[in-house]
Amino acid sequence: MNRATSTGTQSPAPHVADSHDLIRVHGARENNLKNVSVELPKRRLTVFTGVSGSGKSSLVFATIAAESQRMINETYSAFLQGFMPNQSRPDVDVLDGLTTAIIVDQERMGANSRSTVGTATDANTLLRILFSRLGKPHIGSPQAFSFNVASISGKGAVTIEGSSGKTVERRSFSITGGMCPNCDGTGRVTDFDLTAMYDDSKSLSEGPFTVPGYSADGWYGRIYSGCGFFDSDKPIREFTERELHDLLYKEPTKIKVEGINLTYEGLIPKLQKSMLSKDREAMQPHIRAFVDRAVTFTACPECGGTRLSEAARSSKIKGISIADACAMQISDLAKWVGGLDEPSVAPLLGTLRHTLDSFVEIGLGYLSLDRPAGTLSGGEAQRTKMIRHLGSSLTDVTYVFDEPTIGLHPHDIQRMNNLLLRLRDKGNTVLVVEHKPETIAIADHVVDLGPGAGTAGGTVCFEGTVEGLRGSDTITGRHLDDRAALKETVRKPTGALEIRGATANNLQNVDVDIPLGVLTVVTGVAGSGKSSLVHGSIPTGAGVVSIDQGAIKGSRRSNPATYTGLLDPIRKAFAKANGVKPALFSSNSEGACPTCNGAGVIYTELGVMATVATTCEECEGKRFQASVLEYRLGGRDISEVLAMSVTEAEEFFGTGEARTPAAHKILDRLADVGLGYITLGQPLTTLSGGERQRLKLATHMSEKGGTYILDEPTTGLHLADVEQLLGLLDRLVDSGKSVIVIEHHQAVMAHADWIIDLGPGAGHDGGRIVFEGTPADLVAARSTLTGEHLAEYVGG
């Protein structure tokens, strides 16, 4: 017997390397955190709860994940760090025991018009290699199947310098790409309505253009009137054919305007480059409105919308081209790839099968690879990002998820829970920010932040097990077992919105009457066709106000006061009270502190090191010139007003010397959607997802519309806030509005007057109406997945 096996039964002392089993955070002060200290167990599933704005994202994303990523970046050479985004160290005293963090957030995927589900997940890359190896006829390398690579060729003389002097050789080259030459690989062609672009009765000097940013005194207007190609006082309708061609289509030409050298280009190619290169979802609202008015998009007649050249579409495997494969529902494509057996490409087929199976497993089997990435909802985008991590061999990493159940039907939440547990069981630390009780229930460890939001939050109210949270007296603990009851009586419709023969995306010739004057909830599993029915079939325009999940556009200079238009009446009130110009009371205009340009902080770039932000000494972070702060309204200067919370400001502008009805009206709406705690000057970049959506809702409530369409308004809302949202929806309906809500939350379903349930499955298994009626009838029938889950929820 050797010595190693004869040491008796005494277990060895644990190795010192195994003692690092906690992530320790001490003194975290990012955003609204108040010296937060927590110890999180590694290789466990920790869920962070608390009301929207309580500091969950500040702790998980802005502190733990941000520091982990910053430290990984520091392991690269200074040369590489120069190309990476600079990240400053979070405001925290101690961060110990960190592991590599992989962030899977809700940010919408790049809304580039060339980005599709296939390109974003590398599935297209694998398919292109597969077709270049097995496709018949063989047409070239993988790039011959890429709609982002154009076919080019050329020949000419090249001069080669060598030891024997210069020699001239004839060379030629050609690259075979897969891009459709007619639509440049976008799958669609554009047609411009010229009457919506300019008024042909006006001359260039009179400002004929109706394009945003092209006014007569604007830079573009001055270029067109000062380029010298046209008589700027002649109405456009009197232009010769040549002049009209130059105005609309002229190729880039060097010119000089007002002493500045510029390149002149026709109006239409200029708009195609500046506006139409972006996906519609990524455009600013006023530009989107112009594009919708002036441009019609039709599928490219050459490629049929597939984006691919004729050669790329001609090469097939078992009768299927790469265009056919990308248009298939992914669950069908997975079966087709599973039937391919070719030893020469076995590793490639294995990886492709795994990627496609991951789509199906995560509940996205209803998508197709040619679906534009910008059209995915927040929940779909997050799950698409998860796909690359599901088969990862990495262990001992920290996965950070931001509400992974967003956009999921109760039926799908169990599947998501299983995926989170699988990641944990491989030996990883899983940190999840979440509001859904079904996901909180599977946590090994819970951290509840609060007690309130904004300045009333930022402290740890509870840390421990789910059972401990249930017994605690925190807001989350008290509301964890909340169940909304079915309404005893429902409202009677005042009319109906008729939809006939809807076929958008996966809808199968749907006929439905959406009742007006009531609260209607459209529900069904993810991918069943809810958004296609509501957004794709209800004509937007007069009387319809649609509030989607799209992110708010805004820099760190934007804040709730600027976004909602609240700052305009405030500036005018200050100007009137002090007899000066309104522009003085804007930190982005004349009133800005000259030292920090109205930012309140000064950013010092340190090359590859983190950028340092220091409070401006001149204005002490107030953002305004000292002379501007001497002007007062109701005893307060402009910086003090911007530091007020919505609730304080509502009182301030409601009575007395500072009474401003226009401002008070906007503040009323902000308080109405539950944003009474946010400060008027808080940068938009610091707002949580739930806060941003409610800010949007408050802004749209001022629009004169008879029908409101809300897309999952419970996104990012705490259980306690859902009640307030239901009250707001009731107030909208009681004031004579029709409210249509796309929603999975059972509390909203139970509160509805009418439910339209789509399904029974996702993709081509969905797209049909499986139930129409009251929530009570749905619970009684239990005929659909939604009915079963709602019955379980209300205890029916």
UniProtKB/TrEMBL annotation:
Gene3D superfamilies: ABC transporter ATPase domain-like, ABC transporter ATPase like domain, P-loop containing nucleotide triphosphate hydrolases. It comes from the Bacteria. Pfam families: ABC_tran. This is UvrABC system protein A. Belongs to the ABC transporter superfamily. UvrA family. Its main location: cytoplasm. Keywords: ATP-binding, Cytoplasm, DNA damage, DNA excision, DNA repair, DNA-binding, Excision nuclease, Nucleotide-binding, Repeat. Residues 484-785 form the ABC transporter domain. It comes from Streptomyces vastus. It is found in: Cytoplasm.
